[in-house]
Amino acid sequence: MEKEILVKAENLKKWFPVSAGFFNTLISRKQLYVRAVDGVSFEIRRGEIFGLAGESGSGKTTTGRMLLRLIEPTSGKIILDNQDITKIPENKLKPFRKRIQIVFQDPYESLNPRMRIFDILAEPMQIQGSHKESEIKARVKKVLEDVQLVPPEEYMDRFPHELSGGQRQRVATARALVLDPEFIVADEPVSMLDVSIRAEVLNLMVDLVKKYQVSFLYITHDLALARHICDRVGVMYLGKIMELGSVDDVIINPMHPYTQALIAAVPLPDPTSRRIEVVIKGEIPSPINPPSGCRFHTRCPKYIGDICRTSEPRLIDVGKGQLVACHLYK
Amino acid sequence: MAILEVDNLRAYFKTMRGDVKAVDGVSFEVQKGEAMGLAGESGCGKTTTALSVLKILPSNGRIVEGKIIFNNVDIAKYSEDEMREKIRWKGISLVFQGAMNAMNPVLKVGDQIVEAIQLHELDVERKDAQERARKLLEIVGVNPTRIDSYPHEFSGGMRQRAMIAMALASNPEIVIADEPGTALDVIVAAQVLKLLKELKEKLNLAMILITHDLSIIAEICEKTAIMYAGRIAEYGDVVAIFKEPLHPYTQGLIGAFPNIKDKQRIRMRSIPGSPPNLLDPPTGCRFHPRCEYAMDICKKEEPKLVQVGKAHSVSCHLVNRKKEE
Description:
The complex is a heterodimer of chains A (330) and B (325).
Chain A: E1 5-18, H1 22-27, E2 32-45, E3 49-53, H2 60-67, E4 75-80, E5 83-84, H3 94-97, E6 100-103, H4 117-128, H5 133-146, H6 152-156, H7 165-177, E7 183-187, H8 195-211, E8 215-220, H9 223-229, E9 232-237, E10 240-246, H10 247-252, H11 257-264, H12 306-310, E11 316-317, E12 323-324
Parallel strand pairs in A: 3-8, 3-9, 6-7, 7-8
Antiparallel strand pairs in A: 1-2, 1-4, 4-5, 9-10, 10-12, 11-12
Helix pairs in contact in A: 4-5, 5-7, 7-8
Chain B: E1 2-15, E2 18-31, E3 35-39, H1 46-53, E4 61-70, E5 73-74, H2 80-87, E6 92-95, H3 109-120, H4 126-139, H5 156-167, E7 174-178, H6 186-203, E8 206-211, H7 214-220, E9 223-228, E10 231-237, H8 238-243, H9 248-255, H10 296-300, E11 306-309, E12 312-314, H11 317-324
Parallel strand pairs in B: 3-8, 3-9, 6-7, 7-8
Antiparallel strand pairs in B: 1-2, 1-4, 4-5, 9-10, 10-12, 11-12
Helix pairs in contact in B: 3-4, 3-5, 4-5, 5-6
């Protein structure tokens, strides 16, 4: 049985204005924009781990932050639990904020160095109000146990600098969990950690979101990790989703030339099957003036003609819910 | 014949709280035309090893002990002038970590390459050096007309290529590349790795590749040394080590890199705990506080690097014990 949809992005766009400089504003009135996210739609079900993958500059972080209303979308809709939260004014957002939480990339910067772990974890409850002192204490203990910082008493009075990177990221995870949210966005949560502890932190996060049936948006550039922890995945390029579907379909059997190239470029930890393949040249173009038609056409190894240059492909279902935006598939 | 042989190298950093033993008894050798991967987590001493080989440690660091034999000469004894005139760039060169920040932002890319050439080869005219810079850019796949561009006009991948061009400026025999793919996007990183692999084959270069990413080593190296807390845990042929990793640390590290091609989803493995403080490293085997097989002897006695296969050595008491039985 399919679970109900919790979070829905509908044609989300974010265009950041580019400051042109004094002289340019005198000679031209045209405002330029960085089209960081340019029409992205997807759904995340309850308890599902959804991966958003792409190179830097593809718009994955901006998308994640828009879903939390940390960045205001230029247009499009964000639906949380059948309710449009796109236009709710900031001062009425508080009840929604406790349902949606975030784990940032760098635990060395996301924890206030002057606050004790207890205060870091208690603050969200104090802001949301209506929690008794004893209630807060019990809850902080519980989440510390959940993230395996045990015994909790030993960690509550410490400062972030007394913890290792992995422990800090556990605290950040605990802070995201403390209000019992329904949706958590994790933006590259392990990329700053040492390799040997990445798996441990990631496994813990996955166990917890499964245990509490939290929907989880995992933003990453590491497709090998995404393959092993996500249920479904969306691949972004220059502000657009190129391919979307279950991990088994998208990563094992990619249909979009971009996804294929991306996966071919991932080095394999197996010296008997060396194969670094680089099927595409160059680097990601500027999002200020993205290529016309299909954004990938300038680098695409399977360019089929003018249609790629002139018309923008829509995401179409190539079977079993695997969506691909490419003119090869009709 | 080994072109570079490092024997029992120790390099320490002086700090207010005592010596940080960043590299503490490291030995390996690199043959002509061979690529060796130096792998390990941050702080394991892999970059310090590279800087020691070129004798460019920061001012609080020093080589305490060990031999660095390059073409049959121990360069650990060389003076600063001898290093500059004979070794650096002509013999051994380095692609610095973080191509984004390793270049001078106010100098044209071409001029930086010219500078590298003229600094190490005093008799080269500027015009000839410029001509060589153009050729070098072409070799690494950057259009030579970009010689007068500034680093900020280059993309990340082009900057990394320019850094590689700079390392090749004086025809070195060994190139050390420090985290060449890190901070680059997947596709661009693959382009750079492919370039390194092609250059190695075309120019018959020896290469030392420093990385925390074992997949990169699996893709391009023939040999690897896995470092942990300033020592070598396992050393030898890449295929042998990936096929049968014997050190528990190597096993853990390989388990932390899932294969994107796996048909089934697997649960990633991790190594409990975190790397030790090198001001006061653990006694005996430095990995014992994190090792699930730790025995009494591991706490007391430091394991030696013992050969277990044709080209495969491990420093672990567990392996020694099995061998004895």
